[in-house]
Amino acid sequence: MAMKHNHPNLSCPDQAAPTPSGTRTDRPALTPGPPPREPVFWFGFEVPWAKLAVVRVVLFGLLAVDAFLQLSRAPRYGAGDFNVGHFPFLDGIAPGRTGYEVGKLLGTYLFALAALGIATRLVLPIAAALYAWLYFGSQLDGYQHHYLVALLVAIACFVPWERPPDATPATPVRTPGAASEGVRGAAMVRTWAVRLILVQLGIVYLWTAIAKMDPAWISGHTLDDQLSGGLSTTIKGTLGMQAAAILVIAVELVLAATIWLRPAWKIAAPLGILLHLGIMLSGFQIGLFSHLMFALYLLVLPDALFLRLADASPVRSLRTALGRLARSTSWVLWALALAAGLGVGVLLRFEHGLLAALLVSTIPVALAARALLRGRAPAAALGAAHLAAVTLWLAADRTSSVAVDYYRYWGGSQRRLGNPATAEYAYRRLVDIAPDLEAGHYYLGKLLTSDGRGKEGVAHLREAQRLAPRRARAWVQEARWLASQGKHAEAVAKARKAVSAEPSRREARALLKTLTANRRAPATTPEDDDDPEPP
Asked: What is the pTM assigned to this prediction?
């Protein structure tokens, strides 16, 4: 016979214990325990909104400029159908010249939007993937800091760069009291990425210090080979190269232990800034790496500096104007900005400027479509930011030599690879955008005279002579072409002008000696190294 248990402690756990009157009562609510402890090291790290905003503008603004300045390297990619990726599986999808050119234009645009705080959760992951593809897909540009930038941009995807609602300059990224109230906002959940950026810098300093612990560096010989000019003279006259080399290792070890700890920022900030200032003054060819490090060191400067900056009258006025722009909507401004962006693509002096403009137009179109689905017009700030980002292309193009270098290096690489037709196209574009550059006229004239188009080629050679009267190479090339046409006296006269223009030029003296001895001279000059590849 089954026994019936009526003891309340043995009753079914889903049922309430019966009362003497036969009724049932609800089980008493459990007393809530303390909230789970969050990892304070990661989620307890606070940064005032003013500091984060300044870091965003400076860091991503520099990355936008840096991406544009690397455009001149595009002709190296895919040249001769040769590539060695950082990982073998990337060889098949490595960027060629066109991919690198368009990719860097897109990167410039995306980083500019991020600097302006527009759709950072959308544009930064795209920028990170693009940056990683361009860097890891090929070892042609093997700057060691590129891997660090790729990691930092990936981590930055998780930082709340956009302004929180109703935030003031002093509002921390991690809302005070959120954990005790059981609130886990998106900003607080992502705060770990700000700390991780600093931890990543500490790891880099540690590794660079370990890598320098070899006799060549500790003896000072490596540092002596890398430094030149006034900085080298100053170090030799004070510390000495060996002491300076050891000091660099010590500083990097200190930074590895302090850069990620707020109480130690008083040590890390001056040490790190002085270290990277020295690297910048040393003249190392590492792009904008030192400038990017200065941008990251903004994170370790005292918060009070940024709060004072935000409280300055001009900054307050700018914040008010930007706030009004962010709250306003306008289809007209959005459409005008989109059209103007396409116009900028046409005005760019790069081969695929319009294609890049069409591609970046998909960003404001997608964001406007999302606003339309929500029953709103696109924010006026979206149109303004899009126009500002593409205008950066045009401003950087017209104020730098990037486009000129692009066509110079493209023409030079194709000439050396034995592709005269492509080299001619590149040099014609170079002459179009830089008609006062001697190199474009000289190399175009050399190609044309070597290809049987002497009349047009000589015209370019003479323009090169006019632009650079103290360089012998255009005179030499014209003299060789004249000699090949049987115009001996005219060839001798041009050879004499070549020697007069540049007496130290061995090639000019040898040609004049050959012609005056009535010996046959080759119709074209050998390849020269007057137009080197970018460093």
From this structure: 0.84
